Amino acid sequence: MIIKKLPLGPIQANTYLVFDEKTKDAIIIEASGDAEAIKTELDTLGANLKYILLTHGHFDHVFGVNDVKNLYPQAKVFIHKEDEVLTENVAIQCAHFGIDGIEKPQIDEYVDENSKLSLGDIEIKAIHTPGHSKGSVCYLIENNLFSGDTLFFEEIGRCDLFGGSFSEIEKSIRNKIFTLDKNITVYPGHGENTSVGHEIKYNAYFGENSRY
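Now predict its structure.
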């Protein structure tokens, strides 16, 4: 399995390309912008794009969904139903940050913890982690957790936007992420990678050595 990080879009949110060398199938987690850059990476690998998995519905993570979907109409777009309200109002989100609006991203299916997703023989487990938004989801693929804006390197996602809740993000991180294997690598929606074990110890809010 190959994982590539592509910081794209108006505020450089991380899009991740995950590629199964055996089947040549690939997924992307987020579609934050620049569909051509994503296509270049897929073409280099000779990959077939199977899914576009969204961790949540904020504009910077869905900015390139429609452009990628136009290039790969067979790729199914997934988001949690609780964040549909965000994608329906994506133009308002953009305006709030002074960015030209985009059309509502096309969503094909809703994802939840019962969803059966796979990449070749590899299971993709969706973990509902509300707090940054109502429908925030992390995706666990083998020993790799794609955390969206729920968990960052020694930080957490902001909770002051629509649907955000500090108490919910605390429960999500403590009960659903910190209970995972400490050796799991965390790939966040912005910034550098971390690990579950590092965050258990050093996270500024919920770690053993928290500053707050």
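The radius of gyration is 16 Å.
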